[in-house]
Amino acid sequence: MESYYQPGCLPSNRIKAIQELTEGQQLANKLREMLGQPEKVECDCKSVDSIAVQILGMFDNTLSILNSYSFNEYPDILTEATRYNTSSLDYQKSQNCGENAKFVRSEKNKRGCYKRRGNSSTFMKITSSLIDDGYVWRKYGQKAILNAKNQRNYFRCTHKDEKGCRATKQVQKTNDEIPKYKTTYNGYHTCKKSHEVVYGISDSLDCSDNSLILDFKTNTLIEKKQVGSFFHSSKQISKENFSSLGLSQEQCSSSDNYTASDPFTQLPDVPLEPMSTISDYEDMIFSGVFSSSSGTQGYEIDNMFESYDTGDFLLQL
DNA sequence: GTGATTTGACCTCT
DNA sequence: AGAGGTCAAATCAC
């Protein structure tokens, strides 16, 4: 059978994807090696975490690459295009030999078209105050949620357009007497910073941190140290947003100083803020498969937090 | 003028 | 049908 590829138009995204996967494979082998030496793992848990994080980040990068480009190459992506209600013509335009081609929506009346992130990685954390996770977010919506007193705020990475970063997050103030802020992160940041050298979280990783994380896929508890530290703060929440979240501006002094610490794609670019600024209160949940789009799941999780959040530990059953 | 936020509309999913 | 997630025009802020 003939190939779809046209001569001279070898999809660079395919090369990129292969590179990512190859690198991931090498790291997986390295990880396997390390895990075969328990004594080494014990004294170098940061490295193990770091490698795991890198591997996960590469998977996501690969998925991002594949989802961002040609569907001829990856027929499954045609489904994505269909779900976006995008005409095949438009999609072809965007994928035709265009390394930086962007998906262009031709029709104006396609509002609300989106793909629920059923299989993307989702993380959730609860904090007593809004914190800066080091990324630049743009608010794109807010919504009243059933059984929630406060509206949920939706943010996407500012670099979505320019770099195709698909990371989004949702922030919702809980109904608790002492309100907490539940932040759900969807996807990984692919907007790597230019001076980023390696993946990792080593600087911010504290092996003594014994917070608990729930893996929704396996319904097992994981020690937080197995996953690493998390995002550190968010910026760019307007005063209106703060008020809508019930915060004063003092609490939320927005900062343009980015201190990125994404356990899956980013290294801290600059010395991180002391962990105490966030770890006093926050809990985090990691899921490889959990989809926040499910109202039922989300509500159950809300209840879960309300029932088991003890401050220093978050117990999920 | 440019970029961010607000907010109603629209779409998907359950 | 209702809930949740996203879009994009209008508006705001710098």
Question: What does this molecule look like?
Answer:
The chain is of the alpha+beta class and 317 residues long. The relative contact order is 0.15. Strand 6 and strand 7 form a beta hairpin. The protein has nine helices and eight strands. The protein folds into two domains: 12-95; 122-308, no CATH class. Helix content is 31%, strand content 14%. The strands form two sheets. The protein has a six-stranded antiparallel sheet, with no helix packed on it. It has a two-stranded antiparallel sheet with strand order 6-7. The radius of gyration is 20 Å and the shape is flat. The model is unreliable at 1-10, 69-110, 193-282 and 287-317 (pLDDT under 50). It has helices at residues 12-35, 38-43, 45-68, 76-83, 88-95, 160-163, 239-245, 276-279, 295-308; strands spanning 122-127, 137-143, 152-157, 168-173, 181-186, 212-215, 220-223, 283-287. It binds a DNA duplex (14 and 14 nucleotides) through strand 2, strand 3 and helix 9. GO terms for molecular function: DNA-binding transcription factor activity; sequence-specific DNA binding.
Overall tally of domains: 2
Spatial strand sequence of the major β-sheet = 2-3-4-5-1-8
Biggest sheet character: 6 strands, antiparallel
Quickly count the helices.
9
Query: What is the molecular shape?
Result: flat
Helical residue percent?
Answer: 25-40%
Write down the Rg: 20 Å
Q: Output the helix-strand order.
A: HHHHHEEEHEEEEHHEH
Low-confidence stretches: 1-10, 69-110, 193-282, 287-317
**Average pLDDT for all residues:** 54
For the record, give the distance between the C-alpha atoms at the N and C termini, rounded to a whole number: 51 Å
Strand proportion, as a percent range, falls in: 5-15%
Given the helix and strand composition, which structural class is it? Answer: alpha+beta
GO molecular function: DNA-binding transcription factor activity; sequence-specific DNA binding
Keywords: DNA-binding, Nucleus, Transcription, Transcription regulation
Protein name: WRKY domain-containing protein
Domain WRKY: 126-189
